[in-house]
Amino acid sequence: MIDSVMQWFQSKPFAQRLIILAVVFDPLGFAGGYFLAPSFSLEPLIGGVYGVVAANIPTSLHALNYAKRTE
């Protein structure tokens, strides 16, 4: 099943891949940061913002990998 998902993902154009990654990871990052923030003595909304920033790491790494392959 993982192989079929990866094939489906790789078959999409680069711009659509970035959108898919953002749609999947940004809500997860916001929710994780929102709920974990009080344990770090932060406001939940600030934790959500930090979570979104951290969730963009996979998207950025994918973009860097794509740029490296297309040089």
Question: What this model shows, in words?
Answer:
It is a single chain. This protein has 71 residues and is mainly α. The protein has one domain. The protein is built from three helices and no strands. Helix 2 runs antiparallel to helix 3. The mean pLDDT is 94.
Defining traits:
single chain, 71 residues, mainly alpha, 3 helices, 82% helix
Shape: elongated
Q: What level of helicity do the residues show?
A: over 70%
Rounded average pLDDT: 94
- Give the assembly state of these chains: single chain
Q: Compute the gyration radius: what is it?
A: 15 Å
In percent terms, what proportion of residues is strand?
under 5%
Q: CA-to-CA gap between the ends?
A: 31 Å
Taking the sheet with the most strands, its summary is:
none
Beta-strand segment tally = 0
| Individual helix count | 3
Element-level helix/strand string? HHH
Query: Structural class, judged by helices and strands?
Result: mainly alpha
Number of domains: 1
Spans where pLDDT lies below 50 across 5 or more residues = none
